[in-house]
Amino acid sequence: MDQTAVLSNPNRLLDSLTAQELERFVADSDMVDLKFGQVLAEPGERILHVYFPIDCLASLIVTLESGARLEVSMVGNEGMVGVSLMLGVQESSIQVLVKGGGTALRMSSACFQDHLERSPALKKAIKRYLNALMSQIAQSAACAHFHAVEPRLARWLLMTHDRTQGDQLHLTHEFLSSMLGVRRSGVTVAAKALQSRGLIGYQRGKITVHDRPGLEEASCHCYVADRQIYDRMLERVAFS
């Protein structure tokens, strides 16, 4: 993806920038290709770069001492990686893992902070995104505690589908169990239930969304809550 394409279809957090601000922002960034499984941040590490996904997808993951992992949020082209810099926090508190390869804008943390100081529109957009991200993390915590695996899986697939291009999601049961914080057998049962209803297809690490409206019905209300949060955030960013 070249610079011209990025300027015409940027990360949605950058929609509120003027054409001149966006051009400067892209000029100060590198366009990078991120691969599935690539680690962008580790807990305790200093944040050297921020990432603005264009057509890739990243997971924010908490890992316990036992080695158990749980995805608490995901970031697509509606957000950014490294948002804690907005609060003056220079170290990552969480692991960030690429779960959908693609292109992103990468900027040094120092350059990003400079742009924040020069652009009130960018600062306002990042603040609104930070609030939406905190709400999503809280919603995910409640969902993991109160809801069964099948509706949680449907929600997770919908959130991933929203942030990727096309209906095919390259996901293994092992990866899904890690992201949902449940046993692999539980994911297998839930995926088979969704497949038996014709909502998805699953074959060797590839999930295909066949019936999006049906998948929304199978999901818990947390998906709707998430979507409303981000729709409000992006609307205000775009028109503020």
UniProtKB/TrEMBL annotation:
Family annotation (InterPro entries) = cNMP-bd_dom, cNMP-bd_dom_sf, Env_Response_Regulators, HTH_CRP, RmlC-like_jellyroll, WH-like_DNA-bd_sf, WH_DNA-bd_sf
Q: Which domain of life is it from?
A: Bacteria
- Asked if the Swiss-Prot or TrEMBL record annotates the protein with the keyword Transcription regulation, the reply is yes
Identify the residues that the record assigns to the HTH crp-type domain, covering every copy.
152-217
Q: Which UniProt keywords apply?
A: DNA-binding, Transcription, Transcription regulation
Matching Pfam families, A to Z? Answer: HTH_Crp_2
From the Swiss-Prot or TrEMBL record, give the protein name.
Crp/Fnr family transcriptional regulator
Q: Tell me what organism the protein belongs to.
A: Halopseudomonas salina
